């Protein structure tokens, strides 16, 4: 587990423990991921928080909407924006069970999210080191802090179980 300023400064800041509040918010994101799992969606959940207040929660709905852009992060950002009446989510923290993809990282930057805290890496789609590392690119205005590894084992187990079960179903 490590912290780093992203996507513009690749320096490692320091090792740190997660707070009880951070664990609670990631627990809500994991609940959203479990809901997705029950609906046969890829089990990813997201929670957007501002000043220890939940602004929005969401889970993947790609299959439901038949729309590849319906990731948990995108839906969560849209809900928060609708609730607040402004696309600027300055000071907000996004908790997500898996490393954001390129699209979700881009939406987070454009929404001015302050911090992303995520669970497990995504080697197939991750934009913060899993598949690619967009942290090497400098943005002229907005910086996002990212922290990885919060409840990593739980998030990883959920997604691995989902895909293992899906492969077994496809064999039948």
Structure overview:
The protein is α/β, with parallel strands linked by helices. It has helices at residues 20-38, 62-65, 72-84, 102-110, 152-171, and strands spanning 3-6, 45-50, 53-59, 93-98, 115-120, 144-148. A six-stranded mixed sheet has the order 1-6-5-4-2-3. The protein is globular. The chain starts with a strand and ends with a helix.
Quick synopsis:
This protein is of the alpha/beta class and 172 residues long. The protein is built from five helices and six strands.
Order of helices and strands: EHEEHHEHEEH
Gross morphology is globular
Fraction of residues in helices? 25-40%
Amino-to-carboxy terminus distance: 39 Å
Query: Which structural class fits the helix and strand makeup?
Result: alpha/beta
What is the arithmetic mean of pLDDT? 90
Radius of gyration: 15 Å
Query: What does the main sheet amount to?
Result: 6 strands, mixed
Low-confidence stretches: 1-14
Q: What is the strand content?
A: 15-25%
Q: Count up the helices.
A: 5
- Indicate the multimeric state: single chain
Strand order of the largest sheet: 1-6-5-4-2-3
Number of strands: 6
């Amino acid at each position: 587990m490590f912290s780093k300023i992203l996507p513009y400064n690749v320096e490692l800041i320091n090792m740190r423990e997660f707070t009880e509040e951070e664990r609670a918010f990631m627990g809500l994101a994991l609940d959203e991921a479990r809901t997705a799992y029950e609906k046969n969606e890829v089990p990813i959940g997201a929670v957007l928080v501002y000043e220890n207040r939940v602004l929005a929660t969401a889970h993947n709905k790609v299959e439901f909407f038949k729309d590849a852009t319906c990731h948990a992060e995108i839906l969560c950002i849209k809900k928060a924006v609708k609730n607040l009446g402004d696309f600027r989510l300055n000071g907000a923290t996004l908790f997500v069970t898996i490393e954001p993809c390129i699209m979700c990282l881009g939406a987070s930057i454009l929404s001015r999210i302050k911090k992303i805290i995520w669970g497990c890496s995504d080697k197939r789609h991750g934009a913060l080191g899993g598949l690619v590392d967009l942290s090497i690119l400098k943005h002229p205005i907005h910086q996002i802090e990212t922290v990885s590894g919060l409840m990593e084992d739980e998030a990883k187990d959920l997604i691995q179980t989902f895909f293992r079960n899906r492969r077994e179903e496809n064999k039948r």
